[in-house]
Amino acid sequence: MSGKEGKVFNGIVKFYNVAKGYGFLYADDLVDDVYFHINDWKNKSIPEAGDVVGFDVLKQSNGKTKAASILFLEAAPNKKPKDDRVTCPGCDRKIVPRLVIVRGAPSYSMCPYCGCKIRKFIDDDGDAPFRLLIIIVLSVVFFYFFLGSLAIKFFDT
After folding, report:
1. What would the pLDDT profile of 102-146 be if each residue is shown by its tens digit?
2. I need a surface site. Which of 34, 35, 68, 155 has the fewest CB within 10 A?
3. Cβ(12)–Cβ(50) under 8 Å?
4. Which of 58, 76, 50, 44 is nearest to 9 (CA)?
C-alpha cells in the first residue's frame, strides 16, 4: 500500500464505533480496510456504516495506514433523516408544536398554523375553583382548632 499513500480514494464506511470514535473504511482499490479516527472526519454528521466517502491514505510512524481528510460524499442508502414533527389534527400539516406558557408553567402546545391545541400539560377542566375552596375551608378549620387550643392554654395559665 505504500504506493497508494497520498492518493485520494473513494470508499465506504465499513464500521464505526460511536463510543470510541474510530472505524474502518473499505475501498475497491485497496487490499486492506483502512483505519480512521473521528478527528479526520471533515463533516458535521456522524459516520454510519454504508456512507460513501472520499479519503487520503497516510502511513503512520508505526507502519500502519490511516485515512485522513475524510470527506462525506453520499449517505448510506438506508439512512433517513429523523422527522420529529407531528401531524396537526386541525389542519393535517406536519408541524413542530409551539409551547404556550401560563403563569410560568407549560400549559399546552399548539399548531403554529391553525392554533389547534395539540397537547395539554395542565388540567384545566374547570374544577380548580372548587379545589381552591376546599383548601381554604380546610386551612380555616385547621387554624381555628390550632389557634383555639393555643388560646385555651394561654388563658389557663
Report:
1. 877 788 899 999 999 998 886 655 566 777 788 888 888 887 777
2. 155
3. yes
4. 58
